[in-house]
Amino acid sequence: GETMASKVFFWNLRTSMKMPYDKRVKRLIKRSGVFATIASKELVAIKIHFGEAGTTSFIAPIWVAPIVALIKKTGARPFLADTNTLYQGQRYEGASHALVAARHGFDPNILGAPVVIADGIRSGNAREIPSPGKHFETCSIAGDIADADALVTLNHFKGHLLAGFGGVLKNLAMGCATVKGKMQQHCGLGPNLVSKNCTGCGNCVATCLYDALSLKKKKAAIDRDKCVGCGACMHACEFGALMIDWKTDTPVFLERVVEYAAAALALHDKTAHITFVNNVSPGCDCEGHSDAPICPDIGVLVSDDPVAIDQAGLDLVNQAPPSFPSALPTGIASGEDKFMALHPDVDGTYALAYAEKLGLGSRTYELIKV
């Protein structure tokens, strides 16, 4: 395999009166050279997560503005893009989703780039893109991301219930997929019923968009033929009655995620990745709340290698001291895998190994401090 070390550029968040955030982040990106190929009049999709209603740890618009300005300086036309979700939150269709973005401060008049829900109002704006790997012939990717001339990912590095952690690969895979594409990645991850924990409250039944759940004798029941494995019911259940069979499903899920990331990357010759390793919450920005960070704020990473930058983010978080109070179990020390501590049955590094195997990048990297 490829053992060439990829370059990952890093800034540790230190600023001064003369060099505040906007100048520092621009210097970091210029040093990395990742925007060098972006040309005048090109449409640049900036893939970002606007945060589910209730979250507070998504990448703040004030952090995004100088990055947009740097893209615009080339004469290119950037737009902020995300796609609709599989579970029924406030980002389930394009109208509510765009409103959430606006409420969270993503204002085109301030940022100089509009918010575009890239798969359309009901996720009908789709392209089937060939994918390497064994799970899909083609992957369903948002049309407006496919139509862009370049793709820049802005990633908030954090924990994740299903993937262990989320960074570039996760943002490319789930983030660029249509609802159908998200379903394809999740499929087979239907919940296990733990009937003894079920209180018969019916929250899961109300949440399921696919009529896969019902109450029988005051207990939840699943129709496996209708279940798409979206995981909405697991968010809805407060009693641990709907759980995932992690042991068998996680590697397959992670492979599907990586293959979707590969399809999104294959669309574009021009890609750049910027990862914010701050507000490192234990869960995804989809969850509707942001729990206390699990480590101190670390810095910003930039690379054209999605695998290297995710590996660097993971290493930095694991090397950092743990923060308490947080969701982390007490007794965890610097150097231990914080995400494995949060989700002991999920080894997120499996995705990095699989991505390297598919040729998406290298886990070997050189951290260049700017």
Fold and architecture overview:
This protein has 370 residues and is α/β, with parallel strands linked by helices. It is built from 13 helices and 16 strands. It has an eight-stranded mixed sheet, with helices on both faces. A two-stranded antiparallel sheet has the order 5-6. The model has no long low-confidence stretch (mean pLDDT 93).
Which key features would you list for this structure?
370 residues; alpha/beta; eight-stranded mixed sheet; two-stranded antiparallel sheet; 13 helices; 32% helix
Query: Which consecutive residue ranges, at least 5 long each, have pLDDT under 50?
Result: none
The count of β-strands is: 16
Strand content: 15-25%
Measured between the Cα atoms of the first and last residue, the distance is: 29 Å
Strand line-up of the largest beta sheet: 4-3-2-7-14-15-1-16
Give the helices and strands as they follow along the chain: EHEHEHHEEEHEEEHHEHEEHEHEEHHHE
Oligomer: single chain
Outline, from the CA principal axes? Answer: globular
| Secondary structure: helix percent | 25-40%
Helix-strand category: alpha/beta
Short description:
The chain is 32% helix and 20% strand. The protein has helices at 21-32, 61-72, 94-103, 108-111, 143-147, 168-176, 179-186, 203-207, 232-236, 246-266, 306-319, 338-342, 349-357; strands spanning 6-11, 43-47, 77-82, 115-117, 126-130, 138-142, 150-156, 158-160, 164-166, 191-193, 213-216, 219-222, 242-244, 271-277, 299-303, 365-369.
